[in-house]
Amino acid sequence: MRNLKSKAVFNKLRYCVLSAASSVLILGCSEPQQNAQTSLQSEPQSTQAAVSKPVVYQVFTRLFGNQQTANVPWGTVEQNGVGKFADFTPKALQEIKALGTTHIWYTGVLHHALVTDHSKFGIAADDPDVVKGRAGSPYAVKDYYNVNPDLAIDPSQRLAEFDALITRTHQAGMKVIIDIVPNHVARNYQSMSAPDGVKDFGENDDTTQTYARDNNFYYVVGEDFKVPVSPDYQPLGGEAHVQSDGQFSESPAKWTGNGARAAQPDINDWYETVKVNYGVKPDGSYDFPRLPANYAQRDIQAHYEFWQQHELPDSWYKFRDIAYYWLNRGVDGFRYDMAEMVPVEFWSFLNASIKMKNPQAFILAEVYNPALYRDYIQQGKMDYLYDKVGFYDSLKALMQQTGHAQDVLAAQHSVQDIAKHMLHFLENHDEQRIASAEFAGDARMGKPAMVVSHLISKAPTMLYFGQTVGEDGSEDAGFGKPSRTSIFDYIGVPAHQAWMNGGKFDGGQLSQAQQSLRAYYVKLMSLSTLPVVVAGNLLPVVVDTDNAQAKQRVMAFARQYATQRMVVASNFDANHSHTVSLSLPNDWQQNNNTTVRDLLENHPVQTIEDGQITINLAPRASVVYLLED
Question: How far apart are CA 485 and CA 427, in angstroms?
Fold first, then answer.
């Protein structure tokens, strides 16, 4: 959620996804078996393999099915259109599955603050003074027990329509992930759909106190909230609106979502949200038991039992009950926004509670401080974290022709002890599109990067909708700015719409270059079924060349699982071919009769000579060699 929110640069359970034709079964806490398939009879196919690592397809749900192309800045839903749950047809889901997808992360599902008026369904519009964009930020959740009315054909039946989407996704052989945003809620949080007996956030708060352990919020006692002002910003781009008057009633004022404590936050603060209190006092001390250090090595059961012995802050139980509610509706896992802004002890409590209810639940968290990675995995019991600071950042620099291949390898080695927990991505809703002028300006630069990102470790891979057809995010959406597809506005996504082809989901409007790019992704992602990709150990490969630019731009590594061996090399140079020799791991160099077959780009079959493979790589080209004796 870093887009227009200045983010701080602040398993024991792991999963193998077993794929059998159209079904996906997740087995918790199990390493791949030694009798797993370790050789190929033909080109790798997902239905021929015994194991697959997780592949997450992130889709911004509001934008996915939208077919309108007007793209008026700050446009209304009538002008610019909006996608629906129903747009995820069996055909659409089949095409998502073709990318090797095991889990779909439906982003922006929960009912968040938005300006559009659904009052005829009993849903009041929110005040533009405390909403970012017209369509609203998905990270300003207004009601944790319902879904965004924009996404339903009939907003009065929106939960039923989402339930039907969960069912269709499961029938397509994939699991469902949604967001939980633990650090903050919408300034105007009010659940109209909470189950009987569930109290709203803040409903029982003692607002005469800045802090109390069981208050859900922090308060600026004695002061009313004031809407932030800026000469550079007007709600709705300056359009007149009955509620856009620079006023919002909140007395006393609450602390803002990023921790700002002023009654009038700055325009750059997360002013549309209020911070949730987990029992952290204003001085930073904790009002709950600390988790003993040795629990980093203890299992989920032990974590669960530890917390049953203690009375905990009210917010802890509220979020546990929210997670239970969605698990009971068929959701298979969660992505946690800005997890590091919430104490690790809470995550131990919540994740243990979730896993005791559903041991197969998929848990992904946003943590950007590498010093905290191990705490949130080992003590917080996260399955996966974004590998953003380190791996993604160094890979982005290499894609932009400014980084060095060795920096990417160094970043990978720095997390080698937790590598299987570090989810890899090239795009998501916070990051610039690869094809944008501000990033690489060429979607083809995603090809070598995706090869490296997907194949270098046991970690899951994430794809963002539109990535595989070269979406460039160049639209002037209004609140959201070009280079990132806006999460705040009603907008069409042109390259994705060309693939969608009026709801046929057959790529019928794609250019030849776009069709070629998607085909490349499909072929690459099919390799996630190879046991060496699922479970292989990372081994060094030396790039032998006298060309300094080739040293900088060509990245290579090897992986091995049982008798299956793979060598990967990618040329990140956008303009120049490079000929290099790859020196293989020492114990691979004995048999010069080994055949080296490329699984991706159909480079010529090679043989090993003196422990090396010599190859010529065109700009942005990669080899994925399978070694066969």
Answer: 10
DSSP state of 386: E
Q: Please report how many Cα atoms fall inside a 13 Å half-sphere around the Cα of residue 397, on the Cβ side.
A: 16
Closest CA relative to residue 347, chosen from 372, 312, 382:
382
- Prediction pTM value: 0.92
Tell me the one-letter amino acid at 539: L
Specify whether the backbone of 352 is left (phi greater than 0), alpha (psi in -120 to 50) or beta. alpha
The span from the CA of 622 to the CA of 615, in Å, is 10
How far is residue 350's CA from residue 531's CA, in Å, rounded to a whole number? Answer: 32
Q: Give me the phi and psi of 377, to 5 degrees please.
A: -80, -50
Determine contact, residues 490/84, Cβ cutoff 8 Å: no
Alpha-carbon distance of 510 to 375, in angstroms, equals 45
Alpha-carbon distances, residue 341 vs 191, 257, 273, 338, 385 (angstroms): 24, 10, 14, 6, 14
Q: Helices (H), strands (E): how many in the chain? A: 15, 25
Beta-carbon contacts of 200 under 8 Å, excluding residues fewer than 6 positions away, are 189, 190, 191, 194
Instruction: Tell the residue number behind the tokens 């609140």, with chain if given.
Output: 479
338 backbone φψ class: left, alpha, beta (φ>0; ψ -120 to 50)? left
Query: Pairing between strand 175-180 and 103-107?
Result: parallel
What's the CA gap between 147 and 160, in Å, rounded? 10
Give kind and range of the element (H or E) at residue 624: strand 622-628
Measured distance CA(412)–CA(389) in Å, rounded: 11
Q: Tens of pLDDT along 515-572? A: 999 999 999 999 999 999 999 999 999 999 999 999 999 999 999 999 899 999 999 9
Contact 84, 65 (CB under 8 A): yes
Number of Cα atoms under 13 Å in the Cβ half of residue 305:
6
